[in-house]
Amino acid sequence: MSQSTAPTSTLPTFEQRKRARRRLLGGAVGTFVEWYDFLIYGLTVPVFAAQFFGDSNPTVALLSTFAIFGVGFLARPLGGIMFGYLGDRIGRIKVLAITILLMGVATGLIGFLPIYASVGMLAPLLLLVLRLIQGFSTGGEHSGALSFVVESAPQGRRGYWIAIVYSVSILPGVLLGFGLIGLRSWIGEDAYLEWGWRLPFFLGAILAVIGLWLRMRLRDPEEFTRAQEEEGVTNPLKAAITKEWRSLLVVLVILIPNLAGYYFLVTYMYSYAITTVGVDPNIALLSNTIASIVIMVGSLFGGKLADRIGRKPLMITGAIWMAVSAFPALHLLSSGTTAGVIFAQILVAVGVMFYVSGAVVTMLELFRTSSRYSAHGLSYGLGTAIFGGATPFVATALASSMGPIAPAIILVIAGALSLAVLIFTPETRDVSLSEGAVQFNAE
């Protein structure tokens, strides 16, 4: 694929740098709220299993809770399709204001839900409904925020800007890890199980309101408004499916290690350590938090490296690392020791860190600007529905039927599939956002 670069520009003024930082913050705040919402559910899985499913067998209750977690992902493609279409038609900011508001409402209401002892099966049913709303709104939020940021980024810094947004999305895991450890120690484990678990969900609603205020002060990127005027696409979703189908398929496969690795780490390994291995919840939270820090800090350096040497070397390194380290990581996790649990999660985190540093920005650069929101929303929504939400459930089922090390198969397969597709994936570091995807899909 031929490469084209944007013309060299003069150094930005102070006011231009200020506006750029505001755009970066406006995009990042929504991803912070989005991942906060999903992570707080993952970290509350043991509570939901105990409080929302009565006297069920612990394994059945855990599987049921993960099933509701996965159902939220099934709504993501619908949200990605609808909000993506609207975002390409009426603008990024208008739609991103709607998505962050919906996320905040759904998260806040989870904090008010009655438990099984009060209303019986109505409790998990209400939880299911709110998870569907969360999934629907985040389906539009993720793709919109990343599209907004990559279109606002200076040429030659797209990888780093997207890495910043991704790191901000990991930050909730770090804050929640330390926050829940502090909350549980402060109010006691019994109080946390009874009512304290609700407090982080209330905070999520407050964060969404702050994010909404920040976004209402922004404008759509010039890259997007120019593409609208020049290309005049009336149906961006149709254009994505008919003209960018190569990119859609590639992104769908590139997503596999990204999603499977991350949700395997932050949701399955954490819950399995507590419910099956018998690790103290605070130790499991600590190890999860350390792993999140590794990804958060490492991806910042990875984003800079992706702008310097390219995206593909980082993705290839991450895919191989995940596949090779999966079995040793689960051996360490099953040991039940503090050191074993911590190093198990760090092993997986390093692979995720390398991979996402190149993958997240590549998945945006493979689509053209006029249909990027729709195309990314469709592919990412389908990917999360298939690979993200199902990962903890499938891993739990494999461990239950085949033994504690069996879930490592998930990461081995994910790494192998992505490596096979990366052979045919173009390097997108230097391509123009408006032209690179057109050239790739025309080949």
From TrEMBL:
Subcellular location: Cell membrane
Major site of localization recorded for this protein: membrane
Cleaved signal peptide residues: none
Residue ranges occupied by any Major facilitator superfamily (MFS) profile domain in the UniProt entry: 23-429
Protein's UniProt keywords contain Cell membrane: yes
Protein topology in the membrane: Multi-pass membrane protein
Sorted UniProt keywords: Cell membrane, Membrane, Symport, Transmembrane, Transmembrane helix, Transport
Keyword flag Cell membrane: yes
Transmembrane region(s): 24-49, 61-83, 95-115, 121-139, 160-183, 195-214, 248-271, 283-302, 314-333, 339-366, 378-399, 405-424
Gene3D superfamilies in UniProt: MFS general substrate transporter like domains
Family recorded in the similarity comment: Belongs to the major facilitator superfamily. Metabolite:H+ Symporter (MHS) family (TC 2.A.1.6) family.
The protein's name in its UniProt record: MFS transporter
Organism of this sequence: Leifsonia kafniensis
